[in-house]
Amino acid sequence: MVGWPAGCAVTLARLVRQLERTGEVSTEREVGLKTGTRLVRDWRGRTHHVLVLDDGFLFEDRRYGSLSLIASEITGANWPGPRFFGLKRRSKAFAGLTASEQPGG
């Protein structure tokens, strides 16, 4: 019998905890964020802070299962969370634009 790859049980346990606490499951943490990391994003004159948890994210004293939910709450638009927080490279089409000039900005 072939076993699971190393770390699979840890990831599965994290996803189960996330589902139990937030009611949703997201794999966005796969961008390599470590628990305890603080993300900071200025948006339209206000600074927003997000804390990375073992099983999701903490924003304004509420737990979230994904950065995209937080980004949507901040902007009122459908933003990919990792991109909103600068964790993924922007498309060449938006290179040189400020965050407020990009879609959803």
What does this protein structure show overall?
The chain has helices at 8-22, 67-75, 81-84, and strands at 38-43, 46-53, 56-59, 62-64. The protein has one domain. With 105 residues, the chain is α+β, with helices and mostly antiparallel strands. The protein is elongated and about 50 Å long. It contains 3 helices and 4 strands; from the N terminus they run H-E-E-E-E-H-H. The mean pLDDT is 78. A 4-stranded antiparallel beta sheet has the order 1-2-3-4. Strand 2 (46-53) and strand 3 (56-59) form a beta hairpin.
Identify the notable features of this structure and list them briefly.
elongated, four-stranded antiparallel sheet, 105 residues, 3 helices, 27% helix, alpha+beta
